[in-house]
Amino acid sequence: MIELLASRYAYALMFVLLGIGLYMMIANENLVKKLIGVNLFQTAIFLFFVAVAFVEGGRAPIVPADPNPGEIAMASPLPHVIVLTAIVVGIALTAVGLALIVRIYAEYGTLREDTLREVRADE
């Protein structure tokens, strides 16, 4: 079991980040901490895509002038492109989330979800 974790440490780290992010989204009442949990969850997914895309001895997918198809191990650039796109979307999501959190705090004076529900129920 230890050898498996040592050889697949990226997957173990991904599950740890996934668990921490999911726990932060569910267990915390503070909206900022929930947003941090979303970011940790996203980071775990990014790590998963990069770990799956790894090819031992792989090269950039540029075909040489004299290709020998049996010996060339090429890495697919698609997972990396997807991760870069997801990072941009994650940054936009974080920015919008923080803007909403600032607006909620300005309007209600709190960032706790349970307090916000009580205030909204009174209105």
UniProtKB/TrEMBL annotation:
The keyword Transmembrane helix applies. InterPro entries: CPA3_antiporter_subunitC, NUOK/Mnh_C1-like. GO terms for cellular component: membrane. Keywords: Membrane, Transmembrane, Transmembrane helix. The chain crosses the membrane at residues 6-26, 38-58, 78-102. It is found in: Membrane. Gene3D superfamilies: 1.10.287.3510. It is a multi-pass membrane protein. It comes from the Archaea. Pfam families: Oxidored_q2 (PF00420). This is Cation:proton antiporter. It comes from Natrarchaeobius chitinivorans.
